[in-house]
């Protein structure tokens, strides 16, 4: 008996999910480069759009919330507060939305050869991280100019917030990316989720407004949102230190919500659970991707 004939039979087209992505890191890099080249093909500004879009967002929100709604009077260094939240939401929105579209965008490649389909949502998340980095540099510069001198625990909070958003985007991207192959309405639903998410987290306003105006049960639902915890972790990491770390803000309320670390732990657990659920649904549905596409 030849060595080949003694090998166990395996079902074609079945892999180990996200573990296969780790084994094909070089292929993942190629897909990321391809997406970046396609994204900016024929563009005059190119990667400069990663600065232009957040700058316009910041200007609009700062004028509306900071000036008209006078949030800058009750929140010191409101510019840093606002931009640290915008950075988080841009990373989540781009990663989630592009991961949802990634299977459809790569339909010609999926129909020609077999490769782990999870490569495409992961590559989309990687591209969003590439776009996150320039915005993050601007945030660092603004925080330093404002007097930010971070502690180790504040830096750890920023890293934890990034991990939560990355896992949340990947889990939801796997889930909706697989569903979007069968029901194209999923993409429109994701756009609505991303739009609502900005207002369902303390990006444009302080958390205390929600605490004061919502019933306690709805407050608990609000805090159970992983993005709420991630935004607060970024505020703690890059804004709180630039304010001199006061116990109370000018409005007499604490700068950070109670049990912030407990909510952060819950957010991490929820994000990890969504990665598991997203992977299970993705593997369940990927068998007919080529036929549906």
UniProtKB/TrEMBL annotation:
Membrane topology according to the record: Multi-pass membrane protein
Pfam families xref list: ABC2_membrane (PF01061)
Presence of keyword Iron: no
Keywords, ordered alphabetically: Cell inner membrane, Cell membrane, Membrane, Transmembrane, Transmembrane helix, Transport
GO BP, sorted A to Z: lipopolysaccharide transport
Domain annotation ABC transmembrane type-2: ranges: 45-285
Spans through the membrane: 48-68, 80-99, 119-145, 157-183, 189-210, 217-240, 260-282
PROSITE patterns registered for this protein in UniProt: ABC_TM2 (PS51012)
Molecular function GO terms recorded: ABC-type transporter activity
Subcellular location: Cell inner membrane; Cell membrane
Signal peptide from the UniProt entry: none
Any one of the GO CC terms: plasma membrane
Family under the similarity heading: Belongs to the ABC-2 integral membrane protein family.
Protein name: Transport permease protein
Organism: Xylanimonas cellulosilytica (strain DSM 15894 / JCM 12276 / CECT 5975 / KCTC 9989 / LMG 20990 / NBRC 107835 / XIL07)
């Amino acid at each position: 008996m030849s060595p080949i004939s003694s090998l166990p039979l395996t079902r074609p087209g079945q892999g180990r999910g996200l573990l296969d992505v780790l084994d094909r890191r070089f292929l993942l890099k190629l897909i990321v480069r391809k997406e970046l080249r396609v994204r900016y093909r024929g563009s005059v500004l190119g990667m400069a759009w990663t600065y232009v879009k957040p700058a316009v967002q910041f200007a609009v929100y700062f004028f509306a919330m900071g000036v008209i709604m006078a949030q800058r009077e009750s929140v010191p260094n409101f510019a840093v507060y606002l931009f640290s939240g915008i950075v988080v939401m841009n990373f989540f929105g781009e990663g989630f939305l592009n991961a949802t579209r990634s299977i459809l965008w790569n339909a010609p490649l999926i129909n020609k050869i077999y490769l782990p389909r999870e490569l495409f949502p992961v590559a989309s998340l990687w591209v969003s991280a590439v776009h996150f980095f320039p915005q993050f540099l601007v945030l660092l510069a603004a925080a330093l100019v404002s007097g930010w001198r971070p502690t180790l625990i504040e830096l750890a909070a920023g890293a934890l917030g990034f991990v939560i958003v990355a896992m949340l985007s990947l889990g939801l991207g796997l889930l909706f990316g697989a569903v979007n192959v069968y029901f194209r309405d999923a993409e429109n639903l994701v756009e609505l989720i991303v739009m609502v998410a900005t207002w369902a987290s303390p990006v444009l306003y302080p958390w205390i407004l929600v605490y004061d105006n919502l019933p306690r049960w709805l407050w608990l639902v609000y805090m159970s949102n992983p993005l709420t915890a991630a935004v607060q972790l970024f505020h703690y990491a890059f804004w709180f230190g630039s304010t001199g770390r006061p116990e109370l803000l000018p409005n007499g309320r604490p700068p950070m919500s109670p049990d912030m670390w407990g909510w952060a732990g819950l957010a991490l657990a929820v994000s990890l659970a969504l990665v598991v659920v997203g992977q299970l649904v993705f593997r369940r549905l990927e068998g007919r991707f080529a036929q549906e596409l």
